[in-house]
Design a protein that fits this description.
The chain is 39% helix and 9% strand. The longest helix is centred in the N-terminal third of the chain and has 23 residues. The strands form seven sheets. Strands 2-1-15 form a three-stranded mixed beta sheet, with no helix packed on it. Strands 6-8-16 form a three-stranded antiparallel beta sheet, with no helix packed on it. It has 558 residues and is mainly α. It has 21 helices and 17 strands. Among the domains are: 136 residues, Serine Threonine Protein Phosphatase 5, Tetratricopeptide repeat, CATH 1.25.40.10; 129 residues, no CATH class.
Length: 558
């Protein structure tokens, strides 16, 4: 029997990762993994491959990948929030959010290290599974081909994210077994090869569990994204990027194939993409690849709770409130057409009154100004966490002006203006994902953070056309998407407008840093952020990873 722990041990030492979940491998090593793979049940394969997905959950549902992709940009900030007593504050967290916002990080920054570790864990898990599937009996079993391709696609995804963020990808060559570090063109070529080899055997949309499994569509989205950003990956520190026509042709070809042949459709109801039941609602057909959150089993609601005040509640009789962290910047708020359906969706009037309790859900989108809502109270009518919402004599919810009674009891009045040191209510808030309450626990959620959806195929194709000089074709793609959303068409489009459109469509979906780098804007100034140099386009390699492998080298400027 092969020692399947050997590869995992090598990769952990290589990456500096010490936190991989080995439970699945413990289960399948006794007595003989090769025997188990000769005639595996679907349930066995699901459990065997689960470890390849495991690293998606902490990375894409907590404040990890999001922080590197959004908190470093012009659409997200987490201020240090002062109480009226200036000796007390929330969210300084050792300065991590200030460091990210001002581009002052170094190789010891906690989020830089956490994301690296999680991505290397994903790479290690995928390589371990592929090694187990690389036996004569496994290779001869046609039922294993889609699962092998699925893991190969996930491997390419983790490698792409590592390349995009850190510019270096620790890897074990699948043909030679050699531990290597891929950079630049070599990394691009290997990721593209993995995806192209996987696509013929990957499952189609109707077998992807509503986008929770890596499918043909996911592989094509990732391949298009790889070619769209290829000029950046080839020359990170360039004064301007050379977007080769051949690469843009690849983007156009791949996205056109996906749009026409994979069976996905643009959702007409934008915010349904971010509901707790997005894997089974009117918007499901747009979703290509998402993280599979299941209440009480996986994920937590940190991603949704961070956007709203402690005095706002999604449900009563529990701690279903906000944590008062994330907000967006005034520049982003000012860039919107307020008639755009993607900026706000009303679930109840934001004014004093009463509503049927069965209809209560939080309003969605970008929110500024005094907030109204129901207040949980105790038997004496005093606002209390864990209380039940105040009702009138007819049982209707009383909607009233909200105060943050868990802090200084001040009115929740979200201001557009914000700075890195702010009060409790500063900053417009982004209620993009639903704060669903499917279970009794304050952490329980069913939201499915989006990784790929069809709208990006349209906007990637539009951008590729624009970079090739086809502004008319680009405008057609942008307007096809806007029309599906019920938004007025644009009359023209240029690169600045394209970046704006991507911001309107994908805000708070962990696209922004990659987009700003590609459009040459990541080093710009914005609220409380000075200009930063080209070195910040990539993050440093963590120190423990450098100490574990002589094949890794520190990125320029760190």
């Amino acid at each position: 029997m092969k020692n399947y722990f050997l590869l995992l041990t090598i990769l952990l030492a290589f990456s500096g990762c010490a936190d991989l979940d080995e439970e699945v491998f413990d289960e399948v090593q006794v007595p003989d993994i090769e025997a188990l793979l000769k005639n595996p049940t679907p349930e066995f394969l699901d459990n065997f491959i689960a470890s390849a997905y495991a690293e998606l959950i902490p990375n894409f549902t907590e404040r990890n990948y999001f922080n590197l992709q959004e908190s470093t940009t012009d659409i997200s900030m987490t201020p240090t929030r002062l109480w009226q007593d200036p000796s007390r504050s929330d969210w300084f967290d050792g300065g991590r959010y200030v460091t990210l916002h001002t581009h002052a990080w170094d190789a010891s920054e906690v989020t830089v290290n956490t994301v690296w570790t999680l991505l290397q864990g994903g790479i290690a898990a995928c390589l371990e599974i592929l090694d187990a599937l690389d036996t004569p009996s496994a290779l001869a079993n046609p039922d294993l081909a889609p699962r092998r391709a699925e893991v190969q696609g996930l491997l390419a995804f983790y490698m792409w994210a590592t390349l995009d963020l850190y510019a270096q990808v620790p890897y074990r060559d699948l043909s030679t077994g050699e531990n290597i570090v891929l950079k630049d063109v070599a990394a691009i070529d290997e990721i593209a090869t993995l995806l192209n080899n996987a696509i013929p055997d990957l499952r189609a949309k109707n077998a992807s569990n509503s986008g929770h499994l890596f499918s043909k569509g996911a592989a094509k989205m990732l391949l298009a994204r790889l070619y769209l950003n290829k000029a950046v990956y080839e020359d990170r520190y360039a004064g301007s990027f050379n977007f080769a026509g051949a690469d843009m042709d690849q983007v156009i070809s791949i996205t056109t194939d996906l749009i026409q042949n994979e069976g996905y459709n643009i959702a007409s109801e934008y915010f349904r993409l971010f509901d707790g039941d997005s894997d089974n609602n009117s918007a499901t057909d747009e979703l290509i690849f998402t993280v599979n959150c299941q209440a009480g089993l996986t994920c937590n609601r940190a991603f949704t709770a961070m956007v709203m005040s402690q005095g706002q509640y999604a449900a009563d009789a529990g701690s279903f409130r906000g944590w008062n962290g994330f907000c967006t910047l005034p520049e982003f708020v000012d860039s919107w057409d307020t008639n755009d359906a993607r900026i706000f969706e009303e679930k109840y009037p934001n004014e004093a009154g009463v509503i049927d309790p069965d209809t209560y859900k939080l309003n969605r989108g970008i929110q500024v100004g005094v907030q109204y809502g129901p207040v949980p109270v105790n038997a004496d009518g005093i606002p209390t966490e864990g209380g039940t919402f105040r009702r009138d004599a007819d049982g209707n919810l009383v909607i009233q002006e909200l105060t943050n009674f868990l802090r200084d009891d001040q009115v929740i009045d979200y201001s557009k203006e914000v700075s890195l040191t702010s009060n409790q209510w500063a900053g417009a808030r982004v209620f993009k994902y639903e704060y669903d309450t499917p279970g009794p626990g304050r952490w329980d959620t069913n939201i499915n953070p989006v990784i790929f959806r069809l709208a990006d195929a349209y906007l990637m194709r539009a951008e590729a056309k624009l970079r090739k000089g086809d502004a008319g074709g680009a405008l057609d793609d942008v307007n096809e998407l806007r029309t599906a959303r019920g938004i007025a068409e644009l009359t023209s489009i240029d690169l600045d407008g394209m970046l704006d459109e991507r911001g309107f469509e994908f805000y708070y979906e962990s696209h922004r840093r990659t987009d700003l780098v590609r459009f040459g804007k990541f080093g710009d100034t914005w609220t409380d952020k000075p200009a930063s140099d080209a070195n910040k386009r990539v993050f440093p390699i963590p120190l423990n990873a450098l100490a574990s492998s002589t094949k890794l080298t520190q990125n320029m400027g760190y």
